């Protein structure tokens, strides 16, 4: 990362100097080369510009404006790492859980046991940050074999504000359905991990069956929500870190998008 | 705004000092009051914290995580103003238009004249920033009478990256439908304003008819898109600054959310 940073700064400076070289035959030449006055300022300006660009990229991710992307932009590697490890990510997940909690409390439930809140699992209830910390926070192309090894460890910690919301939602009388892109083969390990992280008493845990493999997440999750609606359930809330958790058919009355600038699932 | 900033800083400092007073009876008292060492740092930290919180609020807006809101948070007034007037807003609208343009070029059109791109008008094609600059960039509660006076002037400038996208989309052979929450009574003035700002040759301009007044924007816009689909059109792209431009029924294959932290239309 440090090397990359240096390389980018160096490129920018090369550009600035080469521009001067290109124009140096112009007359009259300025007697004072103002830009050399304060190289520190140039570094600062470059850092500011990079931050602006990467923040803009993150907004585009969260507003679902980007086409499927495989890795984070290389120049934003430090930015994403700082975002995730710093307070910003924590503040963002706290806010989304708080907003969802306010909504959950405002809903009048029918009392017939058909009011549902759907939760995704990875990066929604469970955090895979220990894995992504070892894989560049989204800078490396996703490796399903390596990731499955991590899943098998069942060591993913809870996303604490989501656990709080989860308990509030259960306490309010919602049925809680977990809808995950994980495979049916990973049911036992997933149940174990969820329990260890503090999640209990859900009503359904839906994983990809054999016939669901190869389906886009948007399709698979829409189909599963369609089934819920056919069975008479009302999907009042839905929490997920991917737009493919939230969009499609049989969408919830209110959807809550948790931040995730590390990876994209179509 | 400057007053508000001062007031907030003052409150924070009062809090810090009152905390010390509350604890001053504790023994042993520290001999060195470390936090007084550098008041400038406290100001800086407070500014950083406010920026983090307001950025998080803006993300929640753009990811559609908030309930209907009437004004921006008072403590984020300077933040929103700086965002809009600085480079960040420009970078964001450039990015969303660029992404939309890439998608538009990637789509193979059928050639039967039924492929449609839908554009919203206010804060999507036309910018009302001259109006909002006079009204606190979203800090004041929306005043429809005052806003209509501004609309009647027909002086809203083009959002330049949107004009570029508009021309690309038309050039690619899309039918272009403009779908706005403005009233049918404002048709003439809207056509004039759009033309003056450089927008020409759209295929339909749909405004709220008498029966549409009082409908939520999400409902009104969904109904209009349903009609398009019934007429055999395929809505391949949709650009809007509000989620109510993009969600509901008959949604587009790809939707593009322009940034707008100033107001919310349900």
Describe the structure.
The structure is a homodimer of 266-residue chains. Chain A has 266 residues and is α/β, with parallel strands linked by helices. Chain A folds into 2 domains: 1-24 and 39-56, no CATH class; 77-257, Rossmann fold (3-Layer(aba) Sandwich). Chain A is 47% helix and 11% strand. The first copy, chain A, is built from 9 helices and 5 strands, in the order H-H-H-H-E-H-H-H-E-H-E-H-E-E. Chain A has a 5-stranded parallel beta sheet with strand order 3-2-1-4-5, with helices on both faces. In chain A, helix 4 runs parallel beside helix 7 (160-171). The longest helix of chain A has 24 residues, at 39-62. Mean pLDDT of chain A is 90; it is low at 1-28. The interface between A and B is medium-sized, with 28 and 28 residues. Chains A, B: May function as somatic storage protein during early seedling development. Chains A, B: GO terms for molecular function: acid phosphatase activity; nutrient reservoir activity. Chains A, B: Pfam families: Acid_phosphat_B. Chains A, B: Belongs to the APS1/VSP family. Chains A, B: Residues 1-18 form the signal peptide.
Q: Quickly give the structural class of chain A.
A: alpha/beta
Describe the strand arrangement of the main beta sheet of chain A, using strand numbers: 3-2-1-4-5
Q: Supply the number of structural domains of chain A.
A: 2
**Largest interface chains and counts:** A-B, 28 and 28 residues
Number of helices of chain A: 9
Order of helices and strands of chain A: HHHHEHHHEHEHEE
InterPro entries (chains A, B): Acid_phosphat_B-like (IPR005519), Acid_phosphatase_pln (IPR010028), APS1/VSP (IPR014403), HAD-like_sf (IPR036412), HAD_sf (IPR023214)
Protein name (chains A, B): Acid phosphatase 1-like
Signal peptide (chains A, B): 1-18
Organism (chains A, B): Juglans regia
